[in-house]
């Protein structure tokens, strides 16, 4: 491809709306162009990168017996109503009507459509197992699209769905998809960390996220300093150090007037006690019911853990109106003396019975001190509903400490089980070898194409621009001429015709200054740069620069191709050392 015909329009100024490295560099490098907030066009360079990513994905999906399909973005609403997700998902789901007022949704994922297909065609044990996948446009009404391609409203995703005769077969297949994901990310040059994850709105019996550690990531995950424990903060567990300072003859509970004393800091000063001697009570509305979550004062409640414990569809902060209807007051909530039995109280495992606490008095400007769980209030619903904290001991090995890191989610795998095939959803069964009907078991697996592109830039860039992994770069080689002379042009034309038979080559044939050409080459991030110059021709050499390392070398014409072959081979990411799961036949 000749640069002069390639529709590349680089920018040197940093776009005002861009903050993350990938957003800045993909805009500056003419890879993407915004149509609206969270909606981007992939320009020719960006399209080439996306196609490279898709090719790797397809090879790995086909390698584990995946069958590619294409499903519609416009979905009948009745399918989403059958699975209840039409009602469970909030404003992120686009709901529309056609000219005949029939209801549709714009698919953010395709469980409903693919399960409807399965219901029609998977009739016998002979049809199972099978995995269908697609690379298709998805639509999500993100409230706060940001960071370029990392959080968008329209995107391409590879979503795959496997169907199995039972849970054991799903468990046998799951390592194959898990390992294929690790290979996909490694082949794209990404250091993916698999972590245990919450299943969220997808549901199911198990899930993993594949995270790229990044300071610009929106997700947080937990790692242990001593073992292989990795988990999303929404699922992570740690050891909660107990507080054990109960006196032999504990004093009775006492109400205390606390006008104007509301924050934990003010209460600590007022009561002359530490944060871990408070009961922090937060009110939520879970599917229309008032719920109080109670944790020790030095912890915070995890809404996700609480939602999962309650098996709730929706969990929101309780309104003042809801609290007033139950005779409660925000800022003074407590499980102590709660007489309204319709209010559910969930107490975190951090709350022990070997210390005295300060708690809200369930009345304005009132707190109670010397609260002893078990004596002053009964714990009938106890669960781990607290967020883990950095530095807490690991619950798996007990030796290490937990660290919290930021990351970008590259992909997600779910063991859906029978969530979408159950009688109260899509009701999908097959005829077994015993002649009876059995429930089909599912798994689902997703990777965002543009997100993966942006993540590669987040991991591989420097102050000068992008550093594409050779496997997904728009071109492997950029051929640049420095200076205008018939000799340079002729040598470059001949070299271009030779190299383009072996690699994808971008030939910078523009009538621009050397500074502009070299600066653009670094910005675009093409792995290898070959320079043809008057000086080089006099010395019968060509300059080669490796974008990743900055290493520069000079080669004669006879040895240039072999040198480039070695360099390209050296730049291909290794698949050695991946934490693969054991696979069974």
Describe this structure in words.
By secondary structure, the protein is of the alpha+beta class. The chain folds into three domains: 46-217 and 404-458, Bira Bifunctional Protein, Domain 2 (BirA Bifunctional Protein, domain 2); 254-383, YbaK protein; 475-571, Rossmann fold (3-Layer(aba) Sandwich), CATH 3.40.50.800. The chain is 25% helix and 28% strand. The chain contains 14 helices and 31 strands. The strands form eight sheets. Strands 3, 7, 8, 9, 10, 11, 12, 21 and 24 form a nine-stranded mixed β-sheet that branches. A hairpin with a 5-residue loop joins strand 30 and strand 31 (552-555). Helix 1 crosses helix 10 (449-459), helix 2 runs antiparallel to helix 6 (167-187) and helix 2 packs across helix 10. The model has no long low-confidence stretch (mean pLDDT 95).
Structural class by sheet pairing and helices: alpha+beta
- Give the % helix: 25-40%
* End-to-end separation: 45 Å
CATH topology of the largest domain: BirA Bifunctional Protein, domain 2
**Major sheet, described briefly?**
9 strands, mixed
Which descriptor suits the 3D outline?
globular
Q: Can you identify the CATH class of the largest domain? A: Alpha Beta
Mean pLDDT: 95
Q: What Rg, in angstroms, do the CA atoms define?
A: 29 Å
Level-2 CATH architecture of the largest domain: 2-Layer Sandwich
The count of β-strands is 31
- Counting DSSP H or I runs of 4 or more residues, the number of helices is 14
Number of domains: 3
CATH superfamily of the largest domain: Bira Bifunctional Protein, Domain 2
């Amino acid at each position: 491809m000749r640069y002069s015909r390639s529709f590349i329009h680089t920018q040197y100024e940093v776009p005002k709306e861009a903050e993350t490295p990938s957003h800045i560099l993909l805009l500056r490098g003419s890879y993407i162009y915004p149509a609206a907030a969270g909606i981007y066009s992939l320009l020719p360079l960006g399209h080439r990168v996306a196609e490279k990513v898709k090719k790797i994905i397809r090879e790995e999906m086909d390698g584990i017996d995946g069958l590619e399909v294409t499903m519609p973005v416009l979905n009948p609403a009745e399918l989403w109503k059958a699975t209840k997700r039409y009602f469970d998902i909030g404003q992120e789901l686009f709901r529309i009507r056609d000219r005949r007022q029939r209801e549709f949704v714009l698919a953010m994922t395709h469980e409903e459509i693919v399960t409807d297909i399965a219901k029609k065609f998977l009739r016998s044990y002979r049809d199972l197992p099978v995995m269908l996948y697609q690379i298709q446009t998805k639509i999500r009404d993100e409230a706060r699209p940001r960071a370029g391609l990392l959080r968008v409203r329209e995107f391409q995703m590879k979503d795959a769905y496997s169907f199995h005769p039972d849970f054991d077969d799903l468990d046998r297949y799951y390592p194959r998809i898990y390992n294929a994901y690790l290979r996909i990310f490694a082949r794209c040059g990404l250091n993916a960390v698999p972590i245990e994850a919450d299943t969220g709105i997808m549901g199911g019996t198990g899930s993993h996220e594949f995270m790229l550690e990044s300071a610009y990531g929106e997700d947080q995950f937990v790692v242990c300093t001593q073992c292989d424990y990795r988990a999303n903060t929404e699922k992570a567990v740690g050891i909660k150090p107990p507080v054990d300072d109960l006196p032999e003859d504990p004093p009775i509970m006492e109400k205390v007037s606390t006008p104007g004393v509301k924050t934990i800091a003010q209460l600590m000063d007022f009561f002359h006690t530490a944060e871990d001697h408070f009961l922090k009570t937060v009110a939520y509305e879970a599917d229309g019911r008032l719920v109080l979550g109670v944790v020790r004062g030095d912890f915070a409640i995890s809404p996700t853990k609480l939602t999962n414990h309650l098996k709730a569809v929706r969990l929101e902060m309780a309104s003042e109106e809801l609290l007033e209807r139950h005779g409660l007051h925000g800022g003074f909530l407590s499980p102590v003396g709660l007489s309204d039995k319709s209010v559910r109280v969930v107490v975190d495992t951090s709350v022990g019975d070997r210390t005295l606490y300060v708690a809200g008095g369930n009345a304005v400007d009132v707190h109670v001190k010397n609260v002893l769980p078990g004596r002053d209030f009964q714990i009938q619903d106890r669960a781990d509903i607290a967020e883990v904290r950095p530095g807490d001991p690991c619950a798996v090995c007990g030796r290490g400490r937990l660290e919290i890191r930021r990351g970008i989610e590259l992909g997600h795998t779910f063991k859906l089980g029978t969530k979408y095939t159950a009688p109260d959803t899509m009701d999908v069964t097959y005829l077994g070898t015993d002649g009876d009907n059995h429930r089909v078991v599912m798994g689902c697996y997703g990777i965002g194409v543009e997100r993966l592109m942006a993540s590669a830039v987040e991991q591989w860039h420097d102050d000068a621009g992008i550093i594409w992994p050779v496997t997904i770069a728009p071109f492997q080689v950029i051929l640049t001429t420095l200076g205008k002379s018939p000799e340079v042009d002729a040598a470059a034309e001949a070299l271009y015709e030779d190299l383009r038979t072996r690699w994808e080559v971008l030939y910078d044939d523009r009538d621009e200054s050397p500074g502009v050409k070299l600066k653009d080459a670094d910005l675009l991030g093409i792995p290898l740069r070959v320079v043809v110059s008057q000086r080089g021709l006099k010395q019968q050499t060509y300059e080669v620069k490796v974008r990743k390392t900055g290493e520069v070398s000079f080669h004669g014409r006879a040895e240039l191709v072999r040198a480039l072959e070695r360099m390209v081979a050296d730049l291909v990411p290794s698949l050695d050392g991946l934490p693969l799961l054991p696979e069974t036949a």
